Amino acid sequence: MGLFASSVLLLLGFIYWATAGYMARQTDATIEAEITGLAEQYRRRGLAGLVMIMTERTVPNPNDSSLYLLTTSNYTPVVGNLSHWPQHAEKEDGWLNFHLKDNPHDGKPHQARARPFILRGGLHLLVGRDIRELKDIQQLMLRALGWGLAFTLALGLIGGLMMSRSMMRRLDAINQTSRQIMTGELSRRIPTKGTNDEFDQLADNLNAMLEQIEKLMVGVRQVSDNIAHDLRTPLTRLRNRLEQMRWQNPNTDEYNMQLEKSITEADQLLATFNALLRIAKIESGSHSSRQEPVNLEALVRDASELYEALAEDKNQSLTLKLIPQLQVQGDRDLLFQAIVNLLDNAVKYTPSGGKIGIILFKYKDIIEIIVTDTGPGIPIEAQDKVLQRFYRLETSRSTPGNGLGLSLVAAVATLHHAKLRLKDNAPGLRVALQFAQS
């Protein structure tokens, strides 16, 4: 309000200076022009000519505000419409400001402004104006500007209060929703008015953030449940074996067999936790990846050689279609692990006699690594969920695995600014890693 009032005051001050001030300056300029003209007439026509001109100009005229007076050196009036030289006049840079007390119109004293001039011979010439109307106009303008300032400030204050109340209501809605969310109601959302103003945009952003937070919380709960399911069974088996081994003779074959199985169970548990830690490091950016040119053809061939024997044992065909000399910048170990995970899933879920394919090609500025299989595939509604940790389509969770394979692939893809696409292979699944070449 202070800044607003100051700006309005400056604006009104400029309006007053540009109007009333201009009129006053014009009055002074007119007086000075008349003095210059009368002095010129006195120089050319002498005292008689000056008296004649001033007599003509002082003919009584009720609408004329001009003031003239010619006096001798001792201020004795000679001619003019003033009866005497102004007494008690205020001097201001050669100007005289005084009051007229012989006003023929209303008998009230009012202000006048004049300029004195000394002619040859010691004569005193006074030319001025009755500025009553100018002062009235100035007073009228000041009153009008004062009322205008008062009304403007009043309207500004009312508008400011209304805007403040409106903003406070919107902020209160945000605060109330935030308090409800803090009490555990994660489904609450900030209401919007549909005006798409700054508050609506803020509410939309906050709601989007809340949606993401809710999804993360749900994901954390799901991961906790999945961890409980996946780790409870192997831990139970491990405990039972250790319990049995406590009563067995350590020198028997049964004891050694149970010991090997216990070690295998412990290794599987460690592998699960290591995979979790590796995904967490990749997603948090704390993984010290080595960015270097990676030959994708050699990488895919190395990964496929690991699974050729396993695919043959399951009577599966593994085919490669690779374009040579394709490279990307990245961490070779992580990219190798991602391809291995895709091949492991393909071999695991493809039935005997099925087909597995690996395709490496480039179109425009995109390099793609595609792994296809003829297994059961993944429903469209579950394709986003399978990228979550420990998520498995099989609710019984009896199939070997920990549900972290595709999660690791997604984390590696994000680290390399690549896109992971899952599509139906009709039948089976088609997984593509897309690398954009800059």
Return the CATH topology of the largest domain.
Heat Shock Protein 90
The overall number of domains is 3
Q: Which radius of gyration do the C-alpha atoms yield? A: 50 Å
**How many strands, which pairing sense, and closed or not: the largest β-sheet?**
6 strands, antiparallel
Distance between the amino and carboxyl termini: 53 Å
Helix content: 40-55%
Give the overall shape. Answer: rod-shaped
Mean pLDDT: 82
Q: Write the element-wise H/E pattern from the N-terminal end onward.
A: HEEEEEEHHHEHEEHEEHEE
Beta content comes to 15-25%
CATH architecture of the largest domain: 2-Layer Sandwich
- Overall structural class, as computed from helix and strand content, comes to alpha+beta
Please give the CATH class of the largest domain: Alpha Beta
Strand order, biggest sheet?
2-1-6-5-4-3
Number of strands: 13
Write structural notes for this entry.
The protein has 438 residues and is α+β, with helices and mostly antiparallel strands. The protein folds into 3 domains: 2-138, Beta-Lactamase (2-Layer Sandwich); 198-284, Helix Hairpins (Orthogonal Bundle), CATH 1.10.287.130; 292-436, Histidine kinase-like ATPase, C-terminal domain (Heat Shock Protein 90, 2-Layer Sandwich). Helix content is 54%, strand content 18%. The chain has 7 helices and 13 strands. The chain has helices at residues 2-57, 132-182, 198-246, 253-284, 296-313, 332-349, 405-415, and strands at residues 66-71, 77-80, 90-92, 95-100, 110-118, 124-130, 292-295, 317-322, 327-330, 355-363, 366-373, 419-424, 429-436. The strands form 3 sheets. Strands 2-1-6-5-4-3 form a 6-stranded antiparallel beta sheet. Strands 8-10-11-13-12 form a 5-stranded mixed beta sheet. Strand 10 and strand 11 form a beta hairpin. Helix 3 (198-246) runs antiparallel to helix 4, helix 5 runs parallel beside helix 6 (332-349) and helix 6 (332-349) packs antiparallel against helix 7 (405-415). The longest helix has 56 residues, at 2-57. It is rod-shaped, with a radius of gyration of 50 Å. The two termini are 53 Å apart.
